[in-house]
Design a protein that fits this description.
The chain has helices at about 15-25, 45-55, 65-80, 95-110, 125-130, 150-155, 180-190, 230-235, 250-260, 270-280, 280-305, 330-340, 370-380, and strands spanning about 30, 90-95, 115-120, 135-140, 160-165, 195-200, 225-230, 245, 310, 320, 345, 345-350, 360-365. The protein is an alpha/beta fold. It is globular.
């Protein structure tokens, strides 16, 4: 028989994350490739999840999400950004941000529509666009500053543009889009009557006193913006898969229409725990941000001491390093060899690109690990400069 996989999904095989994680196990390497913390989130949140399980909240939750989480998401948007969203009609809980992204793209895009996004991009973006039968149009963010190229961005828009898919703070670069860049994107979306879908899962992981600016807070943008976030990154609970989206009621309804046939519902006992976590004091958010900023500085120093050129991230928990100063010309080959040479795993950035040459010698490393793990990784990386 022929290959059963539909043609539009054939380019999406095993991810580089699976390959590199397996290599980390084979070589007993420190895995700085896949982006998940190795510590748990707030103890109050963990206790609330246990209490929810013990009290019998283990069946299907309401389709839109449990009421207390919907209310907490609404309160969070107003508390941090001054955005007022109706928890009954303008918020939807999803199985992680990945499902939120897929639900929105599948709900809003017809086959042949175009989606503008930036590369490098999180790998699920391309897959979700392909599933919808839409066409990906990209603008490249280039090392080391990853600034928006206005000419390139304008060229990505056309009469077929249906939506813009934006990630800020940005994975994998660690870039936090500036107000001027967001205003440019907003003006182009308005000019082409396009929706803007913003992936803001790293919204609270912004360093050096910089500010995360949600697209929905810009003038006249709330009514065409769907904002997506999750508990996974903010509260170090990636395995709980509690995400959400908010925006105009008609867009949320469209996403809910699709979402109900993807997972229906999920994460029942974790939803009330996330509701509690979102309402924790500012000190919780500050501690997480300051802890990660220290981890960033530790790993950045180690990479520079190993002879790599880095782009110091303003947010997220990833840092991009250029391996060309060590004589490397192919980051994929370098990444596959690095565990054997130094016992550390990173991810080649080219896997997040359509334009492979834009990231030919770039590697992404995650610093959301315990300090002792990062210190040992630093010790191992130090040997690179002497090889």
């Amino acid at each position: 028989m022929d290959l059963p996989l539909v043609s539009r999904m054939c380019p999406f095989g095993e991810t580089i994350f699976a390959e590199m994680s397996a290599l980390a196990l084979q070589t007993d390497s420190i895995n700085l490739g896949q982006g998940f913390p190795d510590t748990d989130g707030p103890v109050e949140m963990l206790a609330a999840a246990k209490a929810a399980i013990d009290s019998g909240r283990n069946q299907y939750p309401p389709a839109a999400g449990v009421p207390e989480l919907l209310a907490s998401i609404s309160a969070h948007q107003e508390r941090f950004y001054g955005l007022r969203v109706d928890p009954r009609t303008q918020v939807l809980v999803t199985v992680g941000a990945t499902e939120a992204i897929a639900s929105v793209i599948l709900a809003l895009c017809e086959p042949g529509d175009e989606v503008v996004t930036f590369e490098p991009y999180y790998d699920s973006y391309a897959a979700s666009i392909a599933l919808a039968g839409a066409t990906r149009r990209t603008s490249v963010l280039r090392f080391p500053d990853f600034a928006v190229d206005e000419a390139s961005l304008r060229a990505a828009f056309s009469a077929k543009t249906r939506l813009v898919l934006l990630n800020t703070p940005h994975n994998p670069t660690g870039k936090v889009f500036t107000r001027a860049e967001l205003e440019l994107i907003a003006s182009l979306a308005q000019e082409h009557d396009a929706w803007v879908v913003t992936d803001e899962v790293y919204e609270h992981l912004v360093f050096d006193g910089l500010e995360h600016i949600p697209m929905a807070t810009l003038p006249d943008m709330f009514e065409r913006t769907i904002t997506i976030s999750s508990a996974g990154k903010t509260f170090s609970a990636t395995g709980w898969k509690v995400g959400w989206l908010s925006g105009p009621a008609e867009a949320v309804t469209a996403a809910r229409t699709v979402k109900q046939f993807l997972t229906f519902v999920g994460s029942g006992p974790f939803q009330p725990a996330v509701a509690l976590a979102l309402g924790l004091g500012d000190d919780t958010y500050v501690r997480l941000r300051e802890s990660l900023q220290g981890k960033r500085d530790l790993l950045c120093a180690a990479l520079e001491e190993a002879g790599l050129t880095i782009s110091r991230p303003a947010g997220t928990y990833f840092v991009i390093a250029d391996v060309s100063p060590l004589g490397a010309t192919d980051a994929v080959a370098f990444a596959r060899d690095l565990p054997h040479r130094s016992g550390v795993v990173g991810i080649p950035v080219s896997v997040f690109h359509d334009d492979q040459d834009a990231a030919r010698t770039l590697l992404r490393f995650a610093f959301c690990k315990r300090d002792e793990v990062l210190i040992e990784a630093s010790r191992r990386l130090h040997s690179l400069g002497r090889q």
